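Record type: ASSEMBLY
Status: queued
Input:
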Amino acid sequence: MGYPFQGIINRRSPHFPIILIVCLSLGCSGKNGMNEPGEKAAFKGQYPIRAVATVGMIGDAITRVGKGLVSVECLMAPGVDPHLYKASQKDVDRLDKADIVFYGGLHLEGKMTEILEKIGRIKPSIPVGEQLPAESLIRSEMKQGEITTDPHVWFDASLWAIVVEKIGEALAGFDPSHASAYQGEAQAYRKEILELHEWAKARIAEIPQSQRLLVTAHDAFHYFGRAYGIEVRGLQGMSTASEFGLNDVNQLVDTIVERKIKAMFIETSIPRRSIEAVQQGCLARGQQVVIGGELFSDSMGDPSTPEGTYLGMFRHNINTIVDSLK
Amino acid sequence: MSTTFWILLTACLTGIACGPIGCFLVLRRLVMMGDAISHAVLPGIVVGYLLTGVRDPFIMLAGALGVGIITAWLTGIVHHVGQVDEGASMGVVFTLLFAIGVILVSAYTGQVDLDADCVLYGEIAYVTWDTFQIGSTDMGPRAVWMLGGIVAMNVIFIVMFYKQLKICAFDPELASSLGIPTGVFHYLLMTMTAMTVVAAFESVGAILVVAMLAVPAATAYLLTRHLWFMLILSAVIGCLSGLLGYGLAALFDSSISGAMAVAAGILFLLAILFSPHHGIAVLWARRLLHNR
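Status: finished
Output:
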């Protein structure tokens, strides 16, 4: 089998720079439309269907929805930060062999997002976060007027319930012969998540109004704050890759001291040093702030622990927050 | 076409693109230029983003290339005007540019996902899927095209100016007295370096590029006394590092580009030990035979 460009590479022709420039300008614009996941032909291979998810939360949803029919592998192990994830040789293999790929989208996977979109040309590759209704997403305007969307949608359980439903629809579309099984499981799981949502609202309401300030290392909790009525402050920007400035630390210290906030939180996938800087700053101003515990932000716990599932992870976060701020 | 094939092809092309250019850098003692450029491009990306307001890879690549060339040129200026050693002037220029980039990111682009790591550095693991299309025809991995182009440009450049580059590398004073514009060739070489580095790290990531620029060239330097053979050898060693590295990555389920860089290091180590001219093991064996 020949490759269309082999001759050109070997030719070392003087036209090569021109060819290259044409290729680069076409190739780099990256504006190729993504295929709709539903368009792909129905699944004909062997069961279980091989699904690959990027983060644990998505993997958890697929495991539940595709019970018995789908085997799920997650690329990002517990504790790995998806913004900074690097693929290993086996991860490449997994993506290569997958029948269907699910990812967060909304730029959660950083540079890899582009690749995941392009995999969509070969096999169904579905950005679950982008299936949510546009008006439910949190957007923030940049200084330059560009709008970016917060990808951490799983922290609003009512939104995550929609994602579960969408995963059910995607699997039903991919494997129509088991459509009712996927949709049934999705509905059952959705119900559990909505119960969790109500429970979380009730728990957060136990915190006195003035104390409802969630201070974390990076800005992952905006959906959480909106859904459960708690103000959220992150030290780093939305992507963990960005640095925080001295001003960010000082402003945060001011707020904490002013409102006499008792606790801050660290995240499992992020080093604690940044939040400790704030702690020191508060101490210097005579305000004792404890670190209330570790929250799961961009990944879940070890699969063998209760926190290894979405429900357990969510409960852990709520309990940790409520118990230390109350 | 299988994933493995594309990854290996990309690695080989990276080795062929970087090796020969790296040879000239090794001879001119400028080999860390690749590392310097890979850091210094950050302000170029940010300015490209600020000017256009979109995260378009083509604009950012253009910005990076511009700053890459500026880095190479500024280093030369600091070296000549400031009378500082080349290593030191590289250190001054690239840290300054990188720092400007960091300031720009934190001051103007607060929340957007913008840093070299995220936007510009490719990852060799993903090359198979990073294809580009003309119309609706899939033309294969973008990295292969890009690196293929760079390989062709470098080969043309080196073949055309082989004699001048050779004299400039070994004896700049002789080159001047022969009427070769050494300055022009220095800056041409630096421009080619910048283009190679920027294009390659957009495709395969920064670690691999810096490794492929420095290590195979240094290895080849230990193994031969002929420039033409050193150039070819460096490309071959680059390819070998890619193949060996992929094997290592599969063995340990690790980062592919990391493993390839390590493989290049292992080959270098072997060259230190077994080089026919001054390999440590070779000299030691020779002494042993001599004493007997």
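Annotation: The longest strand of chain B covers residues 137-141.
Annotation: Chain B is about 80% helix and 5% strand.
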